[in-house]
Amino acid sequence: MASGMLSLTCPSSSSLSLPHHFKGGAAAAGKPKLLNQASVFGKRFVNTESFTRTTMAVALNVSRFESITMAPPDPILGVSEAFRADTNEMKLNLGVGAYRTEDLQPYVLNVVKKAEKLMLERGENKEYLPIEGLASFNKVTAELLLGANNPLILEQRVATVQGLSGTGSLRLAAALIERYFPGAKVLISSPSWGNHKNIFNDARVPWSEYRYYDPSTVGLDFDGMIADIKAAPEGSFVLLHGCAHNPTGIDPTPEQWEIIADVIQEKNHIPFFDVAYQGFASGSLDVDASSVRLFAARGLELLVAQSYSKNLGLYAERIGAINIVCSSADAATRVKSQIKRLARPMYSNPPVHGARIVANVVGDPELFNEWKEEMEVMAGRIKSVRQKLYDSLRAKDKSGKDWSFILRQIGMFSFTGLNKAQSDNMTNKWHVYMTKDGRISLAGLSSAKCEYLADAIFDSYHNVS
Amino acid sequence: MASDHGDSVFANVVRAPEDPILGVTVAYNKDPSPKKLNLGVGAYRTEEGKPLVLNVVRRAEQMLVNDTSRVKEYLPIVGLAEFNKLSAKLIFGVDSPAIQENRVTTVQCLSGTGSLRVGAEFLARHYHEHTIYIPQPTWGNHPKVFTIAGLSVKTYRYYSPETRGLDFQGLLDDLNAAPSGAIVLLHACAHNPTGVDPTPEQWEQIRQLMRSKGLLPFFDSAYQGFASGSLDEDAQSVRMFVSDGGECLVAQSYAKNMGMYGERVGALSIVCKSADVAVRVESQLKLVIRSMYSNPPIHGASIVAAILKDSHMYHEWTVELKAMADRIISMRQKLFDALQARGTPGDWSHIIKQIGMFTFTGLNAQQVAFMTKEYHIYMTSDGRISMAGLSSQTVSLLADAIHAAVSAVV
C-alpha cells in the first residue's frame, strides 16, 4: 500500500507475505516493450527550442497528479487513527461514536449473531438487490420509523430506498434536492455532525446554519433556532436530528418540537430528519421516533435518513435508508423512481448483508424483542456512565461550575463545552481522544475510567484557556 | 401548502423509466410464462438455471460468521487493508514493480460501479482534463456514472456491425484525434456488451498510441478470470500498461468472478508515477468517499480477502472460476451449433469468437421485442444476451426464437 498514514491503521499490512500461489506478473506476460519515454516525448518537444535536456527529463517523470495536495485527515475518523498510534497505557478513545462495553470492547449484538447464523443456515444467494434495496428491509425500516400501523404506510405514501447507512442515505437525499429543488438551501444546526457539510458540499447543495447550541447555558438556543428557521427563504430544507443530537446531545423538548413544526409549516419548509440513534437515545424505539412521528402526523412531507450503525451495531455493514414521506402514493412512486436513478450511477445497488440482518431481526418477533432488550442495556450503560462522570466531576470541582448538562444531554455524545485548546490538552496531556469541538463519546467510556476522565476534564477546563 | 393532500413539493418530479438493464429483470419477474428466459443482466446461472454461490465463498463466509472474535467496527475510509493489498496483487501481478515501489493506491469501493464513480469524482476534481472517451458501445451505466461525476463523455469507435468485430482503425483514429491528456475508458477484457476484445498485438498498439498522446487509461476490470478462465491472461491488458511505468486507473469488480454480486465488492487502484503522489492521491480519494458513504461495507470484502490470502482457497476459487468460464464457452458453441442446425440465415460465428459473459447478437430492437413478446425471452434492446443465463435445455428455445426473429422481423 502506498500510504504512510495507512500503516497506522493496519500495522499488519506491511508484514503480509506474498502468497506463493499468486502466479504471473510481468514474467508470465511476455514482457511488453518498455516504453521508450525519451523517444515518445522527444517527438513532442522536438520543435520547442526552449526545452533543455533537463526539462525534458523532468517532464518525462512528472505525474499528472503532481499538483495534488495532501488532504487533511478526517476530523472524526482521524481521531481513531491517532488513538491507535498512541502507546500510552492510560489512553482513552472518546472520538468516534461506536459503542463499547464496560470492558471497552466493541460489541456485536447477540441478535445480530443469531440472524447471521440463520442466514448462513438458509444458504441464501448473493444476487444483486434491486436498485432500491431489499424489499423486506425497506418494509420493516419504514414501519420501525413511523409505526407499523401508520396510515402513511398503509396509504403507500412513503418512498423508502435502502442506502449506505446514514451517510449514504443523506447523500441520496442531497442528490435529489440538487436535482429537483435547484437553489433550495439546507439549514444545518450549529454545530452539527461534521460530515453533514461535506455531504451537501459535494452534492452541490447550498446550506446555511441555524443557531442551536448555546455555550452560556450548555443548552439549546431555542429562540435563536426559531428565528433562524423563520428567516430562511421559504421552501428550505431543515436538517433536524431526530433524537440524540450529534455532537451536543441536546434535544428539543416535545413542546419545543411542536413549535419547530409550526414554524416549518408556516414557512413551507421541508423537514429533513437524520435519525441515527433510534432506540439508542432513550432506550425506547418509539420514544426516540416521536419527533419524526409528530411531524408526519401533521401531514407534512418530509425526508428521513436512517442508520442502523449504532442501534444494531452494524457499523461496518453500512445499512440505512432514505425515506420520503409524500402527500400521495403517486408522488411516492415518482420520487422513489428518481432516487433509484441517483443510486444507479453511484453504486448500482446496495449491499445485501446488513439489510438481511435488519430484516431478520426486525421481522422476527422473538429477535425483535431480544433486540429491544439489548438496546436498553446499551442505552442504560451510557446513562450510567453519564451519572458516574457527573458525580466524579461534582466531587472534584468545588468551583461552583454546573456540570449537570452532562445528565441533561442524551445519547452517545456529550458536548463538554471545552474549547479547542482545552480539547487539545485532553489529548496531549491526558491521552483522551476526542473531537476538537469538545465532543466526547460516552459510548467509549467505562465506569472504571470515569474518575480519570473527570480529572482530565477538570484540569483542561480550569487550567487551560 | 405541502400539508394539503393534493399539493406536493414533489409535484414536478416525474416518474423515471426503469433502468434499461436492471429493468429487464423487473419485466422478466412480472412475466407469468413458465417458459420465460432471462438473458438480461449479467449474473451467472448454473446448468439448472439457478444462481450460484461458489463453494469456496460459502466456506469462507462460514469461517467468518463462526469466528467469534470478529467485530463490525467501521472500516477505514479506504476499506479493508488486506483486501486492498490482495486486490492490487490480483490485477497487477504479485511481482508488479508498481506495487513494490509503493506507486499504487488501492481503495475498497462498492463493486465496479462504485470504483468507477469514485475514480471519476477524483478525476473531475483533480485532473486537468475533464473529457473521458468511452467505447461505442459500452455498458449502459458508464456514461451516467461519468456524467454525474462531472466529466464530459465522448465516444470512440469500437464495434463494427459489419464484421461483428473490432473497428480497430476507427478506434485508433478516434483516440489519435483526442486531445492530449484526455481520459480513455478501456474494458480490460470481455468487453461489455460486445464480447469483442483487442488482440495482444492490438493492445500494444493502443498502448503506444495512448502513451504518445498522454491519454490517461481508466480500466474497467469486471471479468478477470471469467473471460478466458485464466486470471493472469485476463489481466494482460492492464499489466501491459502498468509495465511501461505510466499512470492509470483500474476499477475492479468481484461481482462476477467471485459471484459476490449483491455484496458490492470492488476496488479502485490508481497507479502513479511516485509513492509520494500515490499517498496524496489516496488522501484525496478519502474525501470523495467520506461524503458519499463514509466507509465501505465489510462483509463481502472480508470473504474475498479470506479466499485470496489462503493458497488452498485461492486454488479452489480458480477451479470454480474456470468451470464457470468453461460452461459459458460451451454454451456459445451449443448456440452456434443450434443455429447452424436450423439453417438460420446469417453468419453466427461471432457467437463463438466473442468472449466473456455476453454475446452481441446483432439482433435489432424490433427483433428483440419480437423475441420477448412471442418467446418470453428477455434481453437488453441492443441485442445483448447473457450467455451465463443459458443452459443446454434452453439453448434450443433461444435458437428457435432467434431463427424466428431473423426470419419474421427485419
What can you see in these coordinates?
The complex is a heterodimer of chains A (465) and B (410). Chain A has helices at residues 6-9, 26-29, 37-45, 53-60, 77-85, 110-122, 135-146, 151-154, 165-180, 194-202, 222-231, 254-266, 285-288, 290-297, 329-347, 352-363, 365-396, 405-408, 420-428, 450-463, and strands spanning 92-93, 158-163, 186-190, 207-211, 213-214, 219-220, 237-241, 270-275, 302-307, 320-325, 413-415, 432-433, 439-441. Chain A folds into 3 domains: 5-59, no CATH class; 77-107 and 378-463, Aspartate Aminotransferase, domain 1 (Alpha-Beta Complex); 128-363, Aspartate Aminotransferase, domain 2 (3-Layer(aba) Sandwich), CATH 3.40.640. In chain A, 46% of the residues lie in helices and 11% in strands. With 410 residues, chain B is of the alpha/beta class. In chain B, the strands form 4 sheets. In chain B, strands 2-10-9-8-7-3-4 form a 7-stranded mixed β-sheet, sandwiched between helices. A two-stranded parallel ribbon of chain B has the order 1-12. A two-stranded antiparallel ribbon of chain B has the order 5-6. In chain B, helix 8 runs parallel beside helix 9 and helix 14 (365-375) packs across helix 15 (392-408). Chains A and B meet through helix 2, helix 3, helix 6, helix 9 and helix 10 of A and helix 2, helix 3, strand 2, helix 5 and helix 6 of B.
